[in-house]
Amino acid sequence: MQPASDEGTPIGPVDASRVPRFAGIATFARLPRLDEVEHADIAVVGVPFDSGVSYRPGARFGPAHVREASRLLRPFNPAQRVSPFAVQQVADAGDLAVNPFSIDEAVAEIEQGARALADRAERLVVIGGDHTIALPLLRAVHAKHGPVAVLHFDAHLDTWDTYFGAPITHGTPFRRASEEGLIDLTASMHVGTRGPLYGVDDLADDERLGFAIVTSEDVEEHGTAAAIERIRARIGDAPLYISIDIDVLDPAHAPGTGTPEAGGLTSRELLRMVRALADRRIVGADVVEVAPAYDHAQLTAVAASHVAYELISAMAPRP
Ligand SMILES: N=C(N)NCCCC(=O)O
Ligand SMILES: [Zn+2]
Ligand SMILES: [Zn+2]
């Protein structure tokens, strides 16, 4: 174990000017593993689970794919004017090994795993996995913080009720979270939604469940600055959980995902919106639905790794 606090300086990524980026086992951004540091401000943890999908499977391979694509991330983030790995200890906690044959068991294991990690790290940035995992992650966050504002970037509402009678799937986590009282109904929001729904009632249900919406079309029509203004007004200073389904991006920017929808955000728009949250109280985040089998040239994984980097930067303490 290398004590992080010896000189009070966090252990950062492997130096790319000394060890080539493409060498070595991939941790996120080539950061130390959680067992190599005494305490972490942020643990990046993978949840290779995709048994909750309604269409194309494969997000179970997301964490490894995002780690591979994160090798090129550099230590200084000029957009947020912060060195996210120098002002806080960030470490890779590896993957939660959860049951691929039982959704109920996996969901219990994910909550338990997230709660156990809370002793070792202040905050988690979770790499999925399909969007089912947001439910147990929110259960764990709620246990620590009470109801949180959920800022949910996604093509989909994910507040649907059941699929084939199943209540816990990747299309239903935020309905369950709302029903369980995990989220702040006055401060939660979807961003980037678009595409066909099952019926017009979906939107009424969604509003009743506590979500306001900035659609992908709103972003196009009024721009990211207006979207950011609406987001910031809605979330206020509530403890904030950010859940990013990579399919919020247009399939041109993120083809490697299970339920792609045309007409999405650009990665530039998404990165900018995440950056605008740096002064908020972010208590946790996830980046989900990266499915490498449908990816090309690491497009989706590069986008996801940069999104995670911006989340980690937004969580960094500011002077
Ligand atoms: N969470 C994601 N990515 N997709 C949900 C889609 C659910 C459906 O098939 O209607
Ligand atoms: Zn989605
Ligand atoms: Zn989703």
UniProtKB/TrEMBL annotation:
<dbReference type="InterPro" id="IPR005925">
    <property type="entry name" value="Agmatinase-rel"/>
</dbReference>
<keyword id="KW-0479">Metal-binding</keyword>
<dbReference type="InterPro" id="IPR020855">
    <property type="entry name" value="Ureohydrolase_Mn_BS"/>
</dbReference>
<feature type="binding site">
    <location>
        <position position="156"/>
    </location>
    <ligand>
        <name>Mn(2+)</name>
    </ligand>
</feature>
<dbReference type="InterPro" id="IPR023696">
    <property type="entry name" value="Ureohydrolase_dom_sf"/>
</dbReference>
<dbReference type="GO" id="GO:0033389">
    <property type="term" value="P:putrescine biosynthetic process from arginine, via agmatine"/>
</dbReference>
<feature type="binding site">
    <location>
        <position position="154"/>
    </location>
    <ligand>
        <name>Mn(2+)</name>
    </ligand>
</feature>
<keyword id="KW-0378">Hydrolase</keyword>
<feature type="binding site">
    <location>
        <position position="131"/>
    </location>
    <ligand>
        <name>Mn(2+)</name>
    </ligand>
</feature>
<dbReference type="InterPro" id="IPR006035">
    <property type="entry name" value="Ureohydrolase"/>
</dbReference>
<dbReference type="GO" id="GO:0008783">
    <property type="term" value="F:agmatinase activity"/>
</dbReference>
<feature type="binding site">
    <location>
        <position position="245"/>
    </location>
    <ligand>
        <name>Mn(2+)</name>
    </ligand>
</feature>
<keyword id="KW-0464">Manganese</keyword>
<feature type="binding site">
    <location>
        <position position="247"/>
    </location>
    <ligand>
        <name>Mn(2+)</name>
    </ligand>
</feature>
<dbReference type="GO" id="GO:0046872">
    <property type="term" value="F:metal ion binding"/>
</dbReference>
<comment type="similarity">
    <text>Belongs to the arginase family. Agmatinase subfamily.</text>
</comment>
<feature type="binding site">
    <location>
        <position position="158"/>
    </location>
    <ligand>
        <name>Mn(2+)</name>
    </ligand>
</feature>
<dbReference type="Pfam" id="PF00491">
    <property type="entry name" value="Arginase"/>
</dbReference>
<protein>
    <submittedName>
        <fullName>Agmatinase</fullName>
        <ecNumber>3.5.3.11</ecNumber>
    </submittedName>
</protein>
